[in-house]
Amino acid sequence: MERHYRVLDKVQSRILRMPNVVGVGVGYKQVGLTRTEKPAIIVFVEKKLPAAELSRSKKLPKKINGLETDVIEIGRVKLLERNMKMRPALPGSSIGHYKISAGTFGVIVKDKKSGEKLILSNNHILANGSNGSDGRANLGDAILQPGPYDGGRQSDKIAELVRFVPLIRAAEPSDCPVAAGIANIGNWFIKLVRPAYEMRFYKYSSTTNIVDCAVAKPINDELIGEDIVELGAVSGVGVVQENMWVQKSGRTTGVTSGHVTAMGVTLKVSLSDEESGWFSDQVVADLFCQPGDSGSLIIDKENKAVGLLFAGSNSHCIFNRIQNVINLLEIEL
């Protein structure tokens, strides 16, 4: 196709001056929606008009220097600003509980019993990392798009928290009355010599998490869309396998892909600077992710959902198996 590129260099500026043209390049000619194997100079237009409506000077020739051309309607081309307000809000964009920074809108699911549309993401994105009794979140709390870190305000509320799986921390303040009594006595003595110090009892948990997930109900279904930004519609539920290729569309790093590194993983995850939790039955993959990508849906090459991203390091991402998420939240994809 070297000849096509040489010809393109010569005619590019002339073609780009034509009305309605927004781009030009080299590719393969399309017939209807099917791509052929014929190389062509591709001209992108904002809107494809009937030939009868175009004057001769505005018509693109069928061939340029003996090379075939093809006109493709691409529409208006614009930046994909995932951290901005988006209506309808789409999976892959910024979202968050009103008390957090921002995460990723994972996907639209349905309540298994009522059939209502729900927004799926992580507990730490939609429920502020709540264990269910710590007051960090309550059912009915506002979910904003974009998330607060990206400028989301109360007027940007698109949904309300309806359900989440509590997050279990490795160590949490004890609620034992006996421990509380001992701590009160101890603190009375401590304050006599060290007023700035206090005694606290923590309970260590041997229970692990298997998911970090929550769902929110849109206040109006017209405020949300179903196609994932840059990846399109989800085609169903798949099964994650060793070494399989996966991808995600996240608020921070956009679309990235990689391969499954390990499955059945148990690991300790930092939930904040001071807190951590153990997670089991997790999947580790080498796709690139950064803070703010949490909540992204992990899909396979057929756009089938296989996981829900919730954590990562500088080199790997960690995600829940989607079937665990579906079962525990009682949802359908």
Describe the structure.
With about 325 residues, the chain is mainly beta. It folds into four domains: about 1-75, GMP Synthetase, Chain A, domain 3, CATH 3.30.300; about 95-170 and about 205-225, no CATH class; about 175-205, no CATH class; about 235-330, Thrombin, subunit H. It is about 15% helix and about 35% strand. The protein is built from four helices and 21 strands. It has helices at about 1-15, 125, 175-195, 320-330; strands at about 20-30, 35-45, 65, 65-75, 95, 105, 105-110, 115-120, 140-145, 155-165, 170-175, 200-205, 215-220, 235, 245-250, 255-270, 275-285, 295-300, 305-310, 315-320, 330. It has an eight-stranded antiparallel β-sheet. Strands 14, 15, 16, 17, 18, 19 and 20 form a seven-stranded mixed β-sheet that branches. The model is unreliable at about 200-205 (pLDDT under 50).
Key words describing this protein structure:
mainly beta, GMP Synthetase, Chain A, domain 3, 8-stranded antiparallel sheet, 4 domains, single chain, Nal1 N-terminal domain-containing protein, 7-stranded mixed sheet, Nal1_N, 333 residues, Peptidase_S1_PA, Peptidase_S1_PA_chymotrypsin, 13% helix, elongated
